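Entry for magnesium ion complex. Fields follow.
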Amino acid sequence: MKAAAIEAAYRSNIETVDQIKLTRGYYTRNVVAKELASGHLTPSHDHKGNPNAIPLPATFVQDISDLLKERDTTLSLISPYPWPNRAGRTMDSFQTTAWDAFQRDPSAIVSREETRDGKRLLRIAVPDRMTEAACVSCHNNSPESPKRDWKLDDVRAVMEVTKVIEPYLAAAEQRSRMIVLAITAATTVVILILFGVAALFARHEREKRDTDQHVHYLAHHDSMTGTLNRGSFLASLTGAMSRLQSRSRVAVHYIDLDRFKEINDQLGHGVGDELLRAVAKRLKRLLGPEDIISRLGGDEFAVAQTNLQDPGEVGVMADRITRALAKPFQLSHHSVIVSGSVGSAGATVSHATGDELLEDADIALYRAKHAGRACYVVFAPEMRDAMLTRRQLEAHIRDAVAREKFEVYFQPLVRRSGRLDGFEALLRLRDDRGEFISPSVFVPMVEDMGAIDSLGAWVIRNACAAAATWPAHLKISVNLSPVQFRSPNSIAAIVADAIAASGLGAGRLELEITEGLLLEAIDDVIEQLFELKNAGAAIVMDDFGTGYSSLGYLWRLPFDKIKVDKSFVPEEEASQQSVTPVLQTIIGLGRTLNMEVTVEGIETEAQAEFFRDLNCDYLQGYLFGRPMPRGDAAIVILRDLLDEMAESIGSGAVATADETTCLDQVAG
Ligand code: C2E
Ligand code: MG
Ligand code: MG
């Protein structure tokens, strides 16, 4: 810092010297030389108070030095020559050293630091030379000049400038403080920037981590319930299975809510979503610390036990799940009752992955659903074969739907008199070996596939077309599925089209519906039943007495006929007695409500006799004919017509013209 201050003082001294020399040169050339030439004013060292004199250049310099003192700067011009006006002024050691130095080197600069009166000084001495021709002539011609052989550039004196160093030291100190301050400030700024950058970076990293975590969470969880999604669940399950030495410590429960679709449809998706969350919450409460839960999709959940101590715990957990789901759910605006069906499977050595285990649980779940829901079934290996068969059957049915491989068979219906009244159209489908698959098996599957609409319409058209070729007094009965009433395609319109296309006469088409239909939105069903009646069809309540026996609805619904289910047909005479009062009530009810009564499932003459005695209007069963192809039905019709003709002839009556035409038609 001191060196910097000395350096600054030194530079300042030199600058002062240069300025003085410049000013003096200007003064000598432009003022002194001109005045000398004009003779107006005389340069003199004694100019003060003399109006005809101006300062000599050297005196001019001395005058300047007075001004400089105010700035802690001393200026002096001194030479070893004895000028008269400078008597008594001798050079000190520094100035002598400088003079000697200038003699050796006319361009030397000599400096020295010293302390005087408690002040630290920097003295600089430079050679003062004869720079102007005017100076040379003036000095050589002046009577006062101690030397008369001056030449241009001769060193004639020592010019000294002395400065007090303190201000420079203070300035240097100030500057260094400033520098320190600036460095500190800059360092602080840099640190702050670094901190800022670091904070930004950290925030970015945190946000990125948060985003990554969120993305990771979303990728692995079900956003609705916060449970694992299917993929992550299966991965965890597989992980648990491979980690544990004994597979038997892992089990999975596949859960399906039984009435979820209904709740979703009737109360809205908002309530449906709330219910799913509530279900997840309730299931979570059943879990142990190592168990995992997932919403697999829709209303399906899975729970995995990964630390079983005993195989019996599988059933215990399945039971707990079933019970937990059977309790009402108190949602924000509704109290909802659903139940859950559970399929459970314990892992074995044959299960390589979580998928395989879940598949077996799914098979068990299918069983649980078909066992009436709200229950659980634990998987057994033979179920897999049954499932395989079912899957093959599904594929077969799908193919049959696509390629219209179905047939319609016709089963006769007879009046109490024994005369043919018409036929019931029954769907038939053969398996690959040509054996019939029961419609009770494939119809629900077609319903599940969403194909019953088109298949049902096809049966109606087919049945109407067949019946249109029969004598006009014969009816055709077609079964309808409840699903067809839910369809956006109007069943009444389909029926009306089929009647119109076939030209079937009025009142000849009967439509059989089952009590299951009464579980649908009843007002809508009633409206559609009336539309069907308007389209020209009669309505039959099929399988009466089974299912829900909604007597409450019976009088509200526009039934023309009830068909008593075959389960009411007593197999033996001994059981006739016990069933008689029930049948009498049903038939009496039909009479009261102005409905005709049919009984199906009559296989023996005794059974026929029994129902005739009970005043049943129509009988149906193997006794009168099994479901048969259309060609065989034509033969049955012919035989019936011939029987009637024979009876007529026997009784003296003759067949009507209409019946004769029909006979030709059927025979043809
Ligand atoms: P369903 O409408 O009650 O038909 C009567 C069922 O009883 C028929 O079975 C028939 O073959 C059988 N059956 C008739 N007489 C006797 C008898 O004396 N003894 C015994 N044991 N059975 C008798 P199938 O053809 O197997 O049909 C079963 C059910 O499938 C039908 O019951 C009906 O609900 C449904 N189904 C058949 N065809 C169709 C259809 O085209 N559409 C719809 N939606 N369902 C149909
Ligand atoms: Mg039927
Ligand atoms: Mg029936």
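NOTE: Residues 166-220 form the longest helix (55 residues).
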